[in-house]
Amino acid sequence: DPSLRDVVGRVLPLASHYVTIQSFVDSRAKFEYGLVNHALCAAIREMLKEYLVLIAQLEREFRNSAGRFTLQQLWYHAHLSLRTMGALGALVKSAARATHVEERQDPLNAMAGSELVLPLRAKGGGVLGKLAERMLQLSGDESTRRLYAHLLERASVPYFGMLDAWIRYGEIRDPYDEFMVQERREVLWDAPNLTYWERRYVLRDLAVPAFLEPLKMKILMAGKYLNVMRECGLPIADDVRLAELEQGADLEEGATRAVAKSEVMRALKGVRYLRSIEAAYNHANRTLLQMLLTDHQLHARLRSIKRYFLLDQSDFLTHFLDLAGDELKKPRQEVSLTKLQSLLELVLRTSAVAASDPFKEELRAELSRDRLVDGLLRVIGRTAEGADDDDVTFATNVLGNAAISEAGVSVPMAGIEAFSLDYRVSFPLSLIISRRAITKYQLLFRHLFQVKHVERLLCHVWQEHARGPAWRLRERARWNARVFALRSRMLWFVQQFAFYVCSEVIEPSWNQIERRLKEVTTVEQLMTYHLDYIDTCLKGCMLTNATLLKVGGGVWRYSDACTDVRRTTRRTTR
């Protein structure tokens, strides 16, 4: 009978949908699929339970009807469940298809052997993203949209529990690698510096649901800051305090406002979560910022670094060169670093500049193993190639390699070329004044130190010219005039260059960062402003242009020229 065949054809998909859904629930209920899949399966299982109750009721009706229960009656009672079961079947097929495609494409699965390695989209935030995507795609079908919204709300409970633990306590409670933030345990604790905090906690991009994408950095930073506060011994806000902060949380900020008004967050009733994110981020951010600026005197630290590394008041350097000049003339390998450190401490104790500086004890003498130009060119080359410019590699490439000439042969380096300063920075200031920042300060200092050294050499040449009797002979008047003119032009150039660097590059940049420090509102802004300040100084001093470094050679080559001039004039006047 065609009519009966048509009715049966409409009823049978219920059975196939049920088998598909039940298979999905059975497989995803395994522990390795994580808490989000478990919550999703629990919600689907409840719907299947309602479906089985309906089937049991229909079977009871069939058995008690004495043959009067027809296929039309079966269809009448079951057709309402067909839409729900069809939507669930489409969802699980889509999820299974995405999982299988990723498993084939993911080389980790082939490498894992018999051990199961799940794609990130098959669990955690990836599942929530898939549910949200399906809900938005079928938003025109109100009943299906409500179904997916219900599943999304139920499946997101464990995920938002992990989110809550992260933004409230800085803890990752994620046994199945489902959360958007992951802790990289292979990054070992050696020092609480910026590198550690950058690498220890990172985003797991495929586990970020699309509806939380605009807030992922806030979520990451909120937990990071809590861990920094805990390491510093600061108290973390309790639940009562956070509840008060949540009441006053502003959801009108750009990214937060967009998320709050999204259809997915409305379906999740997620405004409370957004308030928690905003409150936790703002509290951790304000507390850490206040600690850096007030308790640890960041502004005074930066001024101290500017005083020594950028030669803001360089009378201490003149005194130091008077005392350590003979030692610095030796080859680098023969220079006593202990003696240099002692002389530096002596100068700092007697200098008027350092007398009022409470942080002068953090300054240390250092001898670099690399020429300034070689180090700068190496850094510029690596940056251009897009290499990972992390703290350790950056410092190693600039300060840790032997000096190599263009011919590839090691060239002996004098102590004056290798001399540099170092500055000890404790945690949490090392988050702002990182090893990378100190390395850049060292590059600037060595550049300015060479300028001062060249100026000093030229002044010594003038003293020799003024004292030497051979320079007063009339028969050498024309030759003497040419030498005097050359020396004067060289000295004028060096002094003008030093004036340009200090007055036109460093001081405007310093004034700008001082203004920014008064207006800064987040720790990220503070980090950005500080690095921008150093990079601006490097660029203004022409230390980031490979062409200028290679073609011009820079002011540091004047020291060799001045030494040659002194040596030549001494031989000539004997």
From TrEMBL:
Residues 298-549 form the Gamma tubulin complex component C-terminal domain. Residues 1-294 form the Gamma tubulin complex component protein N-terminal domain. Keywords: Cytoplasm, Cytoskeleton, Microtubule. GO terms for biological process: cytoplasmic microtubule organization; meiotic cell cycle; microtubule nucleation; mitotic cell cycle; spindle assembly. It holds the Pfam family GCP_C_terminal. InterPro entries: GCP (IPR007259), GCP_C (IPR040457), GCP_C_sf (IPR042241), GCP_N (IPR041470). It comes from the Eukaryota. GO terms for molecular function: gamma-tubulin binding; microtubule minus-end binding. One of its GO terms (cellular component) is gamma-tubulin complex. It is found in: Cytoplasm, Cytoskeleton, Microtubule organizing center. Belongs to the TUBGCP family. This is Spindle pole body component. It comes from Thamnocephalis sphaerospora.
